[in-house]
Amino acid sequence: MAMSLQQRKVAEGRELVASADNHLVTSVWKLKFQPDWDSAASDLNKAAICFKVGLAWEECKAAHLRACEAYANSGSLYHAAKQLDQALLVCKEQGRLEEVEGLASRGGLLYRQAGSPESAAQMLVRAAKLLEREHPARAVGLYEKAADTVGTEDRPAEAAQHLEKAALLTARCGQHDRAADLLLATLGMYSEAGAGGTTHGRLVLALILVQLQRGDCVAAGKVVTQWGGWCDGQQAAAAQDLVQGFGEQDRALAAQGLASPSVRTLDNDYVKMARDLALPAEGEEEGGLC
Prior knowledge:
This protein is mostly helical. The chain has helices at residues 5-24, 37-53, 57-73, 77-94, 100-113, 117-131, 136-151, 156-172, 176-192, 201-213, 217-227, 233-247, 251-258, 261-264, 268-276. It is elongated. The relative contact order is 0.06.
């Protein structure tokens, strides 16, 4: 019976893997003292393409990983990273998202070592987006690495965007201490990039909410002191209501701040945080909450 296209491609891929293995064999009798990493890498890359056509995903991923090693051993770090980039797509096809973080971290490092920070950042962000929905905590580290990658290239505004996304995901995961640190770093990066006016007032409000969720009214007040100038009129009013309302245990004022349109139009995770934030109790004495 004639083989289907998929079967033929899988068979071809396995032949190419065998060829790659032969390129790596050394022999004193044949005066071959070093593995031929270049030829092996080429065969393994071709094999991975064949396995992809044949929908043999596990063999495809294995070929990409071996091709990465071969390219790295031959000194072609950029091409080694590209193999991990392709392996990420295979993981997506397989639904094996638990492998994405490790592959992206390795690939980003290889791209940076190859002198391609832009490719590194792009790979890290692509991987983070794959993880956001099901594994948000794992995506955070990738966004931080992307921020570090572009930050070293003197692109603070782009680094701030990645940190902003990381902060949002930590808030989603209930990691409020880390969210506060990331939001402060984000504002610092935007400031370094020359941001001003009221463009990022929403982040100031988000940071105030995070500090209140942490139970630290003093830190929330410091946010207003340091970054309040970045808020427009409506945001500034909401910030003042929140800090004063929670700081002075004024339930009505705190509720007014949380009900502000400026708070309700933040990213959904911060809106949910505001909705879940416990108001001061009626008649509670000062200092009872924060």
